[in-house]
Structure formats: structure tokens, C-alpha cells
Amino acid sequence: MQRIVLSLMFILSALMLKAQQEPIEIEETSGRTDEPNVIRHVVPFLTITPDSRAGALGDAGAATKPDINSIYWNPAKYTFMEDQAGLSLSYTPWLKALGANIYLGNLAGYLKIDDLQSVGFSLYYFNLGEITLTSPDGTVLDTDTPNELSFNAAYSRKFSENIGGSVGLKYIVSRIFSNSANASSDGREYIPGRSVAADISVYYEDEVNLGDKNGEMAFGMNISNIGTKMTYTEGGEKSFIPTNLRLGGRLTTNIDEFNSFSIIGDINKLLVPTPDPDKGVDQFNDVSLVEGMFRSFGDAPGGFQEEMREIMFSLGAEWWYSDQFAIRGGMYHEHATKGNRKYGTVGVGLKLNMLSLDFAYLLPFGSNSPLKDTLRLTLGLNIN
Questions:
Q1: Cβ 364 vs Cβ 354: under 8 Å
Q2: pLDDT by residue (tens digit) across 304-320?
Q3: Domains along the chain with CATH numbers
């Protein structure tokens, strides 16, 4: 077991060192250099990992072993929970290099109605810190604290011993503009952005034999944030929220009666149309939610190669000792032309009777990343 843990840490360290030593290079296709073409959407806080366990696994969670924070990753897992109910609180200081007092907070919980049905909820809050509003000539107008939140509720049902499904609803509010600046700008009346969205997910798990060991395999899918477009002015332009498709798998080996080891992987794609720089930024104003989702699979101006670049990858590993102590590590990859988020993650977990404590730390691949020194802390209460 020590070899497994040390090997995992060695691989992660080697990959991070390699990424820091090699400069990012944009590939050349068709005789030209590809320019960054990031998918545009509002409320990006909905794409940020809220909890420490998944945050230590490279942001993989569609098929991890069910836990209290499954509502974000795949709420269909709730019907496979062993405990009757649970509650967790997560805290993440965010983008510390860019400003103080920016943080994410997440309150999540679930309740098993019976052996087949469960309900879950979460309140996700993003505080953007205090900002000073000024006029074009530098006159201080006011101070403000922009913030965004999402309230989520989900119903999960087990269809058989091995498969379950879930539907969920969420209400999103984004208050990032202040009317204090109206007198010095264009006089528009700013309003909080609002959206109502749905999530659909499925989860499958089953026991497997791995030579002389037994284990478990699992697969999950979650389509999240299927919601109305959002605007910040009365009658203003509307923008997509980050509708997202996540697919994941897990393989767990029970090494002996005390030790287990899991490999977890996710692929992730935004179901939002890809902008075409030659057509301007307003090309999707009249595109509906459903049309935008289907169009997202084949609208990249760079063709199939660019479509493949829009897929993000997460890979993680988790070792548990006696279901009480865990060591985790992972990696996350996003193409350089689609946001260039590349980082490793490490973390630990501790369970003691009803309480659990998880910690995660993000290690960006590169020395100037604004994600540097990102940590997450999650406290959980499991009710048997």
C-alpha cells in the first residue's frame, strides 16, 4: 500500500514538473496558428468544484462512490448511500492572487425516503469580494459586493439493484452589476440575472471480480444547468448559462479487509454554442436553449479537431484505509485554446463516527496561474 501511495504521488509530481518546464504551445493546423476561442457563458461559478473530495480527484465526480455532495456531480447516487441522511459545509477561498475576500461556500444535504427514493439539496454561494465603483474620470461613486447563488433540489430513485436516476431543479441569481454607476455610464437600469434550470442524471454500479480480489465498477452521466438564458438589463441581450454534459467511470479494488483503491475518470463538455470570431459576438442571441445544446456538438469553426478540444478531462485516484482515512490525487486538463486550465490536485479525508473532514489543494501547471494556492475544506455530518 505504501508503494501505491508513493507511486501515485511520484506520478503527479513528475507530470507537474514536466508541465512547468515545457511552455504552452498552440498547435498549428491547415498552415495557420489556432487562436484561443473560449466558449462564452454567464454564471461561470456553476462550473467550479464546490467540495474537497472531488476537488482532490482532479474535479472528477460523476461515478465516484456516493457521498453527501453528490447533488453537484450526479444526484442519482443518493439512492446508493448507506447512511440515512447527511449534511456538509464546504469553503473555498477563490483566486487569492487576484483579490481578497473572494470565496465559494456550499451547503449540501440529502435524505433517504426509503430504500428506493432520496431527495437532496444544496445552496451554492459565490462572493466576489468588495469592489470600488468609479466614474470614467476616476471619481469614487460607491463600493459594492457582487455575489451569485444557486439553490438546487433533486429527487432520486433506484430503478433496480444497480441503476438509479435523478431529476433536479435549480434557481440561479447573479448580482454582479450595481446601479451606482448608472449616472456615469449609459444610464441603463441593471437588474440581477436570474435563471431556472434542470439537471438529469443516471448512475450504475455493480460488483466485479479482479483476479483474486473483488471490487466494484460504476458509471455515471449528468446533464446539468439545462436552463433559461440570462440578462442583466431590462430587455437586454440574453446569454447562455453553462449547460454541461459529464460522463464518468470508476473501478474500485478491495485489496484486503482494510484497504481499497479506486481509479476515477470524467470527461466534460459544455453544451453551449461555440463562437465564430468572423461572425461577431451576437450570433447566438436568437438561438434557443435546445438548439444551442444540439448545435454545440458540431458548430466549432475549426471543425472536428476544435470540437475535440472542447472536451475536458479529469483523472483521479483514491485510497481508503478502514473506511476512515483517505489519500487522494488527480489531474485536470483543458485545451490551451479553450481556457488552458491545467492542474494537479491532492487531498486527504478523515471519517470519525458521524463526522467527516476533507481537505484538497490545487497545484497549477505553470508559475503564474491565478489558481495558485487554491484550497478547499469540507465538513460533513453522516446520520445513520
A1: no
A2: 999 999 999 999 999 99
A3: 2-383 (2.40.160.40)
